[in-house]
Predict the 3D structure of the following.
Amino acid sequence: MTTTTPPAPSAPSAAPAAGPWRLARAELLRRTSVRISLVVVALFLLMAAGAPLLSALGGWSPEEFDKTAVDPYLGGSPIGPLGGVSADHWLGVEPVTGRDLIARVVHGAQVSLFIALTATAIVVVAGTAAGVAAGYFGGRTDAVLSRLMDLTMSFPSLIFMIAMMSVARDVNRIALMTAVIGLFGWPGIARVVRGQTLSLKHREYVDAARVGGAGPWRILTRDILPGVAGPVIAYTTLIVPGMIATEAALSYLGVGVRPPTPSWGQMIAESVAFYDTDPMYFVIPSTCLFLTVLAFTLLGDALRDVLDPRSGRA
């Protein structure tokens, strides 16, 4: 009688290798600065999105005056400690007018972040399209787009922004600020994308796709854009704080968002006259601006180190 040898147990299959995006996410989440930055960014985004609800919970709209919260005999100084902090006004009030600071700050976050994020979207879309076109097609297309990049980057953008915002009066200020800020921001990311595209368009898989009959649109969307996605994401996060600071600077100079629409830069400008009698009016919007810019900067630095390590510091 013959005996059959039982089959040897098969070796366990190897676990599937983690993709590059999963590895990048794991590396980012291991960093304490990234986790804190994500929490801060999420907090301010939620605050901006829920501005009407938050101001309704506080019981005050951003344009509503509360004359009982300020002392007319002391130049309109808030009544109470820390700039008028009370059960009615959780972060105090604005001097002279008595407007609620929570309502002003959350609606200011909505305006400032909307302008910054929308301008960033314009910059990223325009810059990525121009950079990919210049790098992939080359020749006359590259020459024209590169000279346009040089011209835009050499233009005194801040002076032009101030002049444009000063002379434009009966227009939507938020839409105009978004367009003007976005107009001068695209060449930086276009140069980054152009350089990445130049290094990718001669890779083996791109040549194989071209030989296989794929057209330029298919190659750009299937092969080139995924290759530049990492640097674009990192660069996008890095330019957001610059956009926030630009909007705040224009509003601080009085050529940005105009009252009664609140904005952090506008509030900081108005608080300068009261910094010695009511420092909280200066501290609160300044702290919000500082934390937002710092969080986006730290997040952008970490994304650049992980997604585009060749551009990191030596």
Summary: Confidence is low (pLDDT under 50) at residues 10-17. The radius of gyration is 26 Å. Residues 20 and 26 are 10 Å apart (CA to CA).
